[in-house]
UniProtKB/TrEMBL annotation:
Record's signal peptide: none
UniProt GO molecular function: aminoacyl-tRNA deacylase activity
Organism: Microlunatus phosphovorus (strain ATCC 700054 / DSM 10555 / JCM 9379 / NBRC 101784 / NCIMB 13414 / VKM Ac-1990 / NM-1)
Entry-linked Gene3D superfamilies: YbaK/aminoacyl-tRNA synthetase-associated domain
Protein's name according to its UniProt entry: YbaK/aminoacyl-tRNA synthetase-associated domain-containing protein
């Protein structure tokens, strides 16, 4: 992995981390990581410590980000019932419109406007999480507490 800032999205995330006194910096993975397991293998962490940033759309057309452990999938029906809205997977265009970032590299913050965020409570089991850094191949370390604080996230079971 390298820490070289190669893209404006990476620079933006690094600036947000520094402004908030967070120690992590964005790392660029050497190889593509199309799955949480592939990312975990390159980083050398458990797959459950990969915090996937998944963007959904609600019934009223609003974005909803779900930060979920790489160890499992989001149960859309159950989560929708818990938060009182219908949700479905967002299109790539919707994701880019609301995050300014492509699918496969969405960071949990640094978007044009705040996005309602649900944090998978299973992520609390890990001392250090790895989250998307704004572009595919980019990740950075963050604690569960910092993830919740930086996103103003709602902590819920999502699997």
């Amino acid at each position: 992995m390298s820490t070289a800032a190669v893209h404006p999205s990476v620079e933006k995330i690094n600036a947000i981390l520094a402004e908030n006194g967070l120690p992590g910096r964005v790392w660029i993975l050497e190889d593509a990581a199309p799955t949480a397991q592939a990312a975990a293998d390159q980083i050398g962490c458990e797959v459950g410590a990969i915090a996937n940033s998944l963007v959904f759309t609600t019934g009223d057309g609003e974005p909803l980000m779900v930060m979920t452990s790489g160890a499992h999938r989001v149960n859309i029906r159950d989560l929708g019932s818990r938060i009182g809205v219908t949700i479905k997977r967002a299109s790539a265009e919707f994701v880019r419109e609301h995050t300014s970032q492509p699918i496969g590299g969405v960071a949990p913050f640094g978007h044009p406007r705040p996005i309602r965020t649900i944090i998978d409570v299973d992520l609390a089991a890990y001392d250090q999480l790895w989250v998307g850094g704004g572009i595919p191949h980019a990740v950075f370390p963050l604690t569960y507490a910092d993830l919740v604080a930086m996103t103003d996230g709602e902590e819920l079971p999502v699997a």
